[in-house]
# Entry
Amino acid sequence: MPSGETEPPRIALRGIRKSFGSIEALRGVDLDVMPGECVGLIGDNAAGKSTLTKIISGTYVADAGTIAVDGEQVRFTAPADARAHHIEMVFQDLSLCDHIDVMGNLFLGREMTRWSFLDNRRMKARAREMLSDLDIRIPNLHAKVAQLSGGQRQAIAIARAASFQPRLLIMDEPTSALAVAEVEAVLRLINRVKARGVSVILITHRLQDLFEVCDKIAVMYEGTKVAERETRRTQLDELVKLIVGKGEAI
Amino acid sequence: MSVTYTERKTGSALADFLTEKAQVLSIAAFFLICVLFFTLATDVFLTAGNLLNILRQAAPILIVAVAMTFVIITAGIDLSVGSQVALVNASAALILAMGVPWPLVVLAMLLLGAAIGLGQGWFIAYQGIPAFIVTLAGLSILRGAALYMTQGYSIPIRDVAGFFWLGRGTILDIPVPALIALAIAALGALVLSRQLYGRQVVAVGSNPEAARRVGMPAKWTIASVYMLTGLASAVAGLLIAARLGSGSSNAAVGFELQVIAAVVLGGTSLFGGRGSLLGTVLGTLTIAVIGNGLILMHISPFFTQIVTGTIILVAIWLNTRIFTANFSFKRKT
# Structure
């Protein structure tokens, strides 16, 4: 970073609004995420967390407001537009194909081909690198995804999103269905992704996870961002109060 | 106190192989049992002449079953293939009767089949109408069109030796239709397991939303598999016309059921995502062998319909119950 100049945020949202019929899902949300920063997005159900991430990933189009990636104004009308700006999302349902093997899922939609034939040898070598880069241990690349544990499936979904030079990685509830050791592994994975300069937006209901990986926590309530806290300057009970709408007391 | 950790060993490759191929192995075993049974029950079953005859008769079913495997892997179904065969069969005979050169007719019929299939695929993929409904409508419309064009008469084809060779000829004693069918099956297997298109078909069948999210052309993939059944039905219709030397709107009645039975018997899952072309080949041959064997045993030809239906039911039952993980004959307590 050149001295004296401040780096533009990796993504800057201003005044994002979105309605579904008469319901205002988002009522003017601002959010900045810096490069290599992890922002936790928390809030009650229907607070607008998922709608916001779907707007960032191009699944929904905002009714009003602007999005800037690295200081440059962008407009996303389809998931492919967001992908072109290196914004990747790990969905809550993981979006894996059970009938395709580990390697095939890692390269889903990005298959390497030679004369329209799948280039399995090249993909296998690259898949090994992708997994070992993130320290994920899955011995058999040809195992069908259906045979794997929840944590391994999660790891594959994250590896897939993290391995193609993303600039922003959005994760929707990556740890909700996992066992203790698996949660630890996923959090370590997020820290490794961050260390490579990738910005992360993390949606979670497990507030204790936020303190392990996030730099900043944004609290949403009824379609607005009610608070933003630096992780090291806040406590669990403060977050809980903010989520349930008793933040005035603080 | 020390704690020892041990790593889980990688399971034996053989066990994985057996689980993975359980469906194909079981249909292969069933096929061999059928062959053995009819060999013992009749004198003529296991003769070169009869076996080649089975191959010749099974060829149209196999060709369409290869395409149907792709359709069913995307969790779709195409009920209109029998009607498409009849329409192409009748149209080819009508146009040949006008004196148009046969290679042109073949080309035109392939285009017609592809266009019909793509039309149905458009309704299914881009308009979101269930495949069952679209192709059920197609079954009625296309058969109706064939009947209307021919007014229900059989149209004779005369003096087109080159065209007849497609249905009646042999290369090294093997019937030409069988060679065409096996070549198409081999091509289908290659595309399904090794090519990008095959991967897209499996992905769309396994998890359509995931395929869309990773940027695969999900809708086009779904539409295109119906184009394949259209194309395959055209090939089958032409081969039937060439073999019988006539075109009829009553050709291939109940054909769709034989095709679907063959595919499902071969272990392709009706819920999408999983399928095998080797299984489809074995399934087709099994149905052909049963049909042929029952006739050789002088059992009423109507009975084969009952058997075909029963096979579909039992195959789907096995498909959904036994070949899922952790199956046990014991009741769950």
In short: Chain A has one domain: 11-92+150-249.
